[in-house]
Design goal:
Length: about 70
């Protein structure tokens, strides 16, 4: 109810994670992992390495869920 509350329509993290998901789903795991790690680094989390395929997609979706929940 606070008129000064900032409610973004779309965030930088959501954009990066959407990019990551799209890249992974089109077979570009390297771009997907880089985008995922940009978000993790910004949040103070360690970068992930050696993730590909389904494991990478799962990590992206989980990070997206957490990111959207916290905004």
């Amino acid at each position: 109810a606070d008129p000064g509350y900032r409610q973004p329509l779309i965030t930088w993290a959501e954009t990066q994670l959407t990019l990551a998901e799209a890249a992974q789903r089109t077979g570009d795991d390297l771009t997907a992992l880089r985008a995922l790690n940009r978000v993790r680094t910004e949040a103070g989390l360690p970068a992930l390495t050696n993730l590909t395929g389904t494991a990478l997609l799962r990590a992206i979706i989980e990070e997206k869920y957490v990111s959207l929940f916290q905004d």
